[in-house]
TrEMBL record:
Protein's organism: Rotaria magnacalcarata
Domain HAT C-terminal dimerisation: 47-113
Protein name: HAT C-terminal dimerisation domain-containing protein
PANTHER family in UniProt: PTHR45749, ZINC FINGER MYM-TYPE PROTEIN 1-LIKE
Molecular function (Gene Ontology), one example: protein dimerization activity
Length: 138
């Protein structure tokens, strides 16, 4: 990356994340960090972040913040890809006998597994029990 490209990238980052980083020192931090990373032969953003966390956070605090933001940004199509790969697990001999609504609900449960595991089942059961029976007496 040339010096002009680095300057333009730094300007865009400063404009976008001016509340998250110290604008005054960010450009110098980036330039020093690039040299340091090149000397260490680190190319992967995750490895760069690990390098920072292992003792360089105080030296490059703004670079650490930007890398953390970058590494936690969701990829726009990841949820769709994830749901398709999880749907493969749902495919089994029962799938052909399921109606579309039941298959959709089952797929949603598999996709949102982390949320389902964090539920307090006693609370859900009690809330469901409070709804009372809806059967009509004949």
């Amino acid at each position: 990356m040339s010096a002009n490209e680095i300057n333009e990238s730094v300007k865009r980052l400063v404009t976008k994340y001016k509340n998250d980083i110290d604008i005054e020192y960010f450009k110098d931090e980036v330039l020093h960090f690039i040299k340091y990373v090149q000397e260490e032969n680190v190319c992967n953003p995750v490895e760069m972040y690990r390098l920072l966390v292992d003792g360089l956070q105080s030296t490059f605090p703004n670079v650490e913040t930007i890398l953390r933001i970058f590494l936690t940004m969701p990829v726009c199509n990841a949820s769709g890809e994830r749901s398709f790969s999880l749907l493969k697990r749902v495919k089994n001999y029962l799938r052909s006998s399921l109606n579309q609504e039941h298959l959709s609900n089952l797929s949603l449960k598999v996709i949102e597994n982390e949320v389902a595991q964090s539920l307090d089942y006693e609370f859900v059961i009690n809330e469901f029990a409070k709804l009372k029976a809806r059967k009509v007496l004949l």
